[in-house]
């Protein structure tokens, strides 16, 4: 029996219902258990995933491809879609969607321009998954982040999440804030003024009654937070290199940050990190960022299976 996610594009989590989010979490947990018990899943045998990455990626691309292969499916991929696909000759993302629907059963796209995943989906009758569109959304990251919080903390409702770093350009925090708020989280936003969370996101959350504190000082923020969600200052989104140089070292999580924090702080990061979390923090038991990245595989297995109707 297929679910309401069968054939659906995953572009923005606002377009999914709470029941659909729960279904993704439950399916992920089920698949993870099968794998932990040494079982194999072949749900996607005979299906093909196309990965189109117009921007660099390690985790998202490899975890999607791993997820497909682990479920018996196949992967076709453009190594660097910006320079080695016909985009280089001027082909639109919409026309690429028209083509990709005849080669694959589901497509994953990362693109520097906000709205490009929707453009691909407009061209394709097969499901399209947004793997990050500019400074817009990164919905599958938010899903794996939610799964990580549920695994690490046992719940999300009532927890205080400190979102820190580049809240202006970080698409992971844009997708994450909306999703975590729906699940009952409270927030501290910690960013330099120039990289604050966009007003429309903050105002929209506040209108829904979500508690948000703005605390630019990281040491003060971690005293009140259950989860610190650190992000990288997004160099590639800066027009002025001098402005990036001014802001790049705004925050650094060290063992002193952990000592100052509320007991049991969980530290997350979508990765890659640059200098914002020192490697000395990696051995802290609450440092969850590599476990978080690993959760990308079962979450993406669940998503691929659900949108292909093979769960
Ligand atoms: N978190 C994340 O999107 O990582 P990549 O850029 O390596 O895919």
Characteristics of this structure?
single chain, 311 residues, alpha/beta, Rossmann fold, 2 domains, 4-stranded parallel sheet, binds phosphoric acid mono(formamide)ester
- Euclidean distance between termini CA atoms: 8 Å
**Total domain modules:** 2
Would you list the SSEs in sequence order as H and E? HEHEHHEHEHEHEHEHEHHEHH
Number of E strands:
9
Percent in helix: 40-55%
Query: What is the CATH architecture term of the largest domain?
Result: 3-Layer(aba) Sandwich
Mean pLDDT: 96
- Widest beta sheet: strand line-up: 7-6-5-8-9
CATH topology of the largest domain: Rossmann fold
Give the structural class: alpha/beta
User: Can you tell me the CATH superfamily of the largest domain?
Assistant: Aspartate/ornithine carbamoyltransferase
Spatial shape = globular
The kinds of small molecule bound in this structure are: phosphoric acid mono(formamide)ester
Percent of sequence in beta strands: 5-15%
Any low-confidence stretches, pLDDT <50, length ≥5? none
Instruction: Supply the CATH class of the largest domain.
Output: Alpha Beta
Mind telling me the C-alpha Rg?
19 Å
Helix count equals 13
């Amino acid at each position: 029996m297929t679910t309401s996610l069968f054939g659906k594009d995953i572009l923005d989590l606002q377009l999914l219902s709470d029941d659909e989010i729960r279904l993704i979490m439950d399916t992920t947990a089920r698949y993870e258990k099968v794998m932990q018990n040494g079982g194999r899943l072949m749900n996607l045998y005979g299906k093909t995933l196309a990965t189109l990455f117009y921007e660099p990626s390690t985790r998202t691309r490899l975890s999607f491809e791993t997820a497909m292969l682990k479920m018996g499916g196949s992967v076709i991929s453009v190594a660097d879609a910006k320079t080695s696909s016909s985009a280089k000759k001027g082909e639109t993302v919409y026309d690429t969607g028209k083509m990709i629907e005849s080669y694959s059963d589901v497509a994953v796209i990362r693109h520097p321009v906000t709205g490009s995943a929707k453009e691909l989906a407009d061209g394709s009758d097969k499901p399209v998954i947004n793997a990050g569109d500019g400074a817009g959304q990164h919905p599958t990251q938010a899903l794996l982040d939610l799964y990580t919080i549920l695994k690490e903390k046992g719940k999300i409702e009532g927890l205080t999440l400190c979102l820190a770093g580049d809240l202006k350009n970080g698409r992971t925090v844009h997708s994450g804030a909306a999703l975590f708020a729906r699940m009952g989280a409270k927030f501290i936003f910690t960013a330099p003024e120039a990289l604050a969370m966009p007003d429309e996101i903050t105002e929209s959350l506040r209108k829904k009654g979500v508690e948000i504190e703005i605390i630019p000082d990281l040491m003060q923020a971690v005293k009140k937070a259950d989860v610190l969600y650190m992000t990288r200052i997004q160099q590639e989104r800066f027009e002025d290199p001098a402005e990036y140089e001014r802001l790049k070292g705004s925050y650094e999580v060290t063992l002193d940050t952990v000592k100052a924090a509320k007991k049991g702080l969980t530290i997350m990061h979508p990765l890659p990190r640059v200098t914002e979390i020192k490697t000395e923090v990696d051995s802290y038991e609450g440092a969850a960022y590599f476990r978080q990245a690993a959760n990308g595989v079962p979450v993406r297995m669940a998503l691929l299976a659900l949108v292909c109707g093979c769960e």
